[in-house]
Give the backbone structure.
Amino acid sequence: MGIPVRQALAVSGYLMKQKLKGNARYPLVLMLEPLYRCNLACAGCGKIQHPEDVLNTYLTPQQCWDAAEECGAPVVSIAGGEPLVHPKIDEIVAGLVARKKFVYLCTNAILLERWLPKLTPSTYLTISVHMDGMRELHDAMVDRAGTFDKAVAGIREAKRRGFRVSTNTTVFADSAPEQMGQLFTFLMEDLKIDGMMVSPGYDYPKAPNQSVFLRRPQMIDTFRKIFALPGHKKWRFFHTPLFLEFLQGKRAMQCTAWGNPTRNVFGWQRPCYLMAEGNVPTFKQLIEETEWDRYGYGRDARCTNCMAHCGYEATAVKATMASPLEGIRAGVGAMLGRGA
Amino acid sequence: MRTVILAPMSREARAIGGDATICPHARDIPASILGRQAGTGAPPEHAPPPATLQSPGPGDATTPDGEAAVTSSEHAPPPSTVARPVPEGTPVAHPTIVIIAGVGGGLDPSLASGALILGRRVLAEGRPELTPHPALFAAARSALQAGGIGFVSSQLLTAARPPATAAAKRDAWNTFGAAGVDMETYELAAALESAGVPWLALRSVLDTAASTLPAAVARWSAESDERQIARAALRTPRDWPAYLRLALELRASLRGLRRGVPVLRAAFASIESLPAARSPRPGAVDVPLVGIR
């Protein structure tokens, strides 16, 4: 099973409502960063390079819930930093679930087994574990030995306790298509996770290792090879078929930066999850005062090599909604988790 | 500074207004714009950089050291002084701003027919990219915003044979990241850049990224081909819906130009000078454009 029926229906209903209201710009997924502190320093991460006082700043549970209500997106992805470092992450998650938000709790899973007893399985909660490859590649990308084994143990324990578990894989220059295929098959067949997410790495200028990033033509080539591997039809992705086609260069898309707004410890980040050009205090200001047309592939040099799902999945969803045929295809694909 | 509009086709020139110059090729750029005698052939290979560009005085525009420099046709000096070489690095006064305006194929899938693309870079495969004068570009952005004109500032691709099918457009989009494609902008911009004339490109989307052009239109290379296209259209009734769609898209596209160009022209009328630009001239970019950069 891919995306739960309840989530698919809730998101479809939300989209219809936005369309009927005539809203041109509306959020799909709130990217909630309640902290920047992380217990890893991954090669391709440009999120955590902040002074100590910023790393010590955490959003309160109330601030997190307010952000979810202010923005109104049906899905909340809790990212960071490492969310499980937040001392009140269980409270934050419970509050969001109580508000009927579909929560994706992103984690490197180092602390997952410690937190699982304090979390409650729910259709609204998916634990999304960061997995960049099989043991050797994953541990190299996160720059700490033993992390892969901890993540696998965390996933097994979460599944045993009845949680919905997905994984989030970032594809880098060192990610050989065969290795990615091996990982996806392992995740689906051995760990029996509910679904996967995949995205090419964004070339953060602050990332410690700039050589890990792919350029757009390489990304397309890598994803074409990944999705040509035998057994790819058994992989389940929490993505629209259109997004997976986009990754393979079979679809032309422009970024929808406002689709995944980011709330962090400074406020609402402008313009998107990956680029930080300052923050505004309210979501309304973010939507109404940002010059959205300035950003996107071809429009801003920083977007040249970005094919990340936080920018393009919203475009894929919009395109799906605009075409009844694509809607049916995506609906069936999402239920089955087939993607492309 | 005076503003000159170069439009590749007569239809575009008519939509923009009476004073637009029809200019499908660099060789058609009036000599008065390039600042040299008519009929002198290709632009100078070692034209001075577009350094300090100052508003012309009532007579000859001069550099600070008194050397005669290029001027507008309104105050044209004798031809012998027009083409006088200017030492490299010498600030140059040039009185003309050129807007290259026309319709073009859409590659950015988010753009509808009639959407305006302000070129922040102009690309051509295997050639160094060209960028407009930053101050001019910024002024254009501000003017369009202030005028409430919707636009995107993106890259424009010039190709001898623009992609005509949705699949070819998708591939061009993935490769170049250009919002639109046309057949003229690069050549015109390169000639102007070589002559030190500040330029800006504005294109209005004709056929969208998702559409495929009828075969006869895809073979289009000049306005003189339009009769052939009309004859081909009459012979292929199955393409009539596509021609009808294209006609409607052309209307929207020309409407976009009519909206955008006057706003730029009005804004540029108040520009007296442009600060020194560091934008490279053709050939000055070390990294050749190979696919996406």
